[in-house]
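HUMAN: Quick job: go over this next protein and say how the chain folds.
***
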Amino acid sequence: MDIDETILVDDINSVGNPARRAFFKGMASTANDIRKGIRDLADAGSPFSIAECQRLITRQLAETKF
């Protein structure tokens, strides 16, 4: 990509920078895709995926403020 890594890291760490928004959007999209894959495997009966879904749900509930 021919990008200076130091500048990129600084941009990602700068609130309001477009690179920061793009980074977090990409991270959220990737995490969502991984969760969908885990859910699909759990639907198919994968014991690991079922346990992972339960762990993710528990974590999400713990992080939610009611």
